[in-house]
Fold this protein.
Amino acid sequence: MSGALWDSRIPPTRPKPTRGGTWRALRRGIPLFLMIVVCLILLLITRGIERLLVGARRPWSSVFPRFVSRNALRLLGLRLTVTGTPMRQHGVVVANHSSWLDILVLNAEQRVFFVSKAEVANWPGVGAMAKAAGTVFITRDRSHAAEQKAIFENRLKLGHKLLFFPEGTSTDSLRVLPFKPTLFAALFDPQLRHECWVQPVTVRYIAPEGQDVRFYGWWGDMDFGVSLMDVLKAAPQGRVEVTFHDPIEVASVKDRKELARRCEVAVRSGLPPTPVEFEGA
C-alpha cells in the first residue's frame, strides 16, 4: 500500500435514494437516540456512585457503552462477525480507524476506554458522551507530551484497558496508514512494561451490495450528519468483520517504534490489498 502518502479528499459516491429510506432512518434512528439518552443518564448516575465508593475506577459504569454499542449495531442492521478473542491481559488495544462506526464496533465485544484527540471533547453531544464514558483526551502538541504520558500511565495502572488508533486519523476503510509510535511510549514505563500487553485489532467494513466499497469510510472533511443518514437509510445493510490478533507482550519488544511496526503489520494482515482504482485516491 502507498498509505504514507494517502491524503484523499474524494468522498465515496453517495448512494441513490431508495424507497422507504426516510422511514427506515426514523425507524432505526429514534430507538437509537432514546437508548443513548437513557443509558447516558444511567451511566452518569452510576459514575457518581463509583466516585464515592471506588474513586477513579469504573467497574460498573463501563457496562453501558458496551450495551449501547451492541444494540446500536442491531438497530442499524449492521452484522458483526468476530474472529479471535479479546485479550484477558492488562494493557491496550490498537486498531485501524475507518469510520465513526469504529466506536460502536470496537466497544461491542469488550470493555475499553478510548483515547481521542482533544477536539472531540468540544463536539456537541458527542463530546459529552465521550467524557461520560471515560475517554482519554490528548493533544498533538509536543509540549503536552509528558503530561499526557502521565495520564496514560495512570489510567493503565488503574487497570483500564485503553484503545487508540495509531494512524492518527481515519481513512476510507480500504487501507492502513503507518502507525505512529508516540502513544506506545507510556507502555515502556518501568512500572508497566513487564505487565502490559498490546492487542492489534483489524476492523474491516464490507459495503452494502451495489454501493461504493468505501461506503462506511469517514475521513477528511466529510460531514458526520450525511454519513449517519446514509447508514440509517441503507437497505440492504453491509457488514463488519473484526479480527483480534495475538496479543504482544511489551516486555518482549525493544522499543515503541518496534512495537508500533509489529502492531501495524498485524492489523494490515486482516485487510485485503487496496483495489487498484483506489490505490492513490
User: Anything to note?
Assistant: The longest strand covers residues 197-206. The helical segments are 21-54, 63-76, 101-108, 126-132, 145-157, 224-233, 256-268. The chain has one domain: 16-272.
